[in-house]
Specification:
83 residues; alpha+beta; two-stranded antiparallel sheet; 48% helix
């Protein structure tokens, strides 16, 4: 999802040399199940991709939190509930 949002310009990096550097060091690897993971271009490379990976993990957590069902406290606070 990160790549798609980046291409749709819903994620904006502006001028961020660290983000660009990490993007240049990263590739995506797809396993037999179709899962995509971030990896370095060369296995033994000392170039870092950690800030990019952290941004992707943070985005995933936000998207999961946004799509989660409302809690009981949220339902009570909204006033749209009965017993």
């Amino acid at each position: 999802g990160f790549r798609d949002l980046l291409m749709e310009q819903k994620i904006v990096l502006e001028y961020n040399p660290l983000a660009y550097w990490c993007c240049c060091n990263a590739i995506e690897v797809i396993n037999n199940f179709g899962d995509i993971k971030l990896s370095k271009k060369h296995k033994d490379d000392s170039q870092r991709i950690d800030p990019l990976a952290a941004a992707m993990n943070a985005l995933a957590r936000v998207l999961v939190k946004r799509s989660a069902e409302p809690s009981l406290a949220d339902a009570i606070a909204s006033g749209n509930w009965t017993m």
